[in-house]
Amino acid sequence: MVSMETPICEFGKPAIDFALPGVDGRTWTLEQCRGPNGLLVMFICNHCPYVKAVQERIVRDTKELKDYGIGSVAIMSNDPTDYPEDSFDNMKRVAEQFGYPFPYLYDETQEIAKAYGAVCTPDFFGYNKNLELQYRGRLDASRKETAPPDARRELFEAMKQIALTGRGPEHQIASMGCSIKWRRS
């Protein structure tokens, strides 16, 4: 497991369109996932301890962000060959277990992760209503262990600000997680 940090936010970079299969049997596009005030695109997986540490908080925050007009989507881009816990069947199981209130999509070709520049799980991309990037930071102070319950909700606060003003915070702390498991060429 290689630990990685996300790059700094490229303010204004447009969201990349996609059409990916979801664990619900539907194919989802960028347009179908967005909310009237923005979109949170999350690259996550099932096996990563950094994701496991925040799964319940992701569910909580994405549910609350709906009230601010922010849509959310999670994309799993890992190659499950060496990580069977990340298989599509296990994606279905995890989404059901945690009650994911957002589409959980499989990027089998890994083209979407590459197009977004995703480097780790979790990797968060927060867009305004014009689908311009405004946040590329962490959820909170959690690492492989969940941060204390009173930890500042950095992602939630940033996305709420984006919903209300169209702009993300100037200061963002990079997300940290396991490297995306790229296919061997």
UniProtKB/TrEMBL annotation:
<feature type="domain" description="Thioredoxin">
    <location>
        <begin position="9"/>
        <end position="161"/>
    </location>
</feature>
<protein>
    <submittedName>
        <fullName>PPO candidate 1</fullName>
    </submittedName>
</protein>
<dbReference type="Pfam" id="PF00578">
    <property type="entry name" value="AhpC-TSA"/>
</dbReference>
<dbReference type="InterPro" id="IPR013766">
    <property type="entry name" value="Thioredoxin_domain"/>
</dbReference>
<dbReference type="InterPro" id="IPR036249">
    <property type="entry name" value="Thioredoxin-like_sf"/>
</dbReference>
<dbReference type="InterPro" id="IPR047262">
    <property type="entry name" value="PRX-like1"/>
</dbReference>
<dbReference type="InterPro" id="IPR000866">
    <property type="entry name" value="AhpC/TSA"/>
</dbReference>
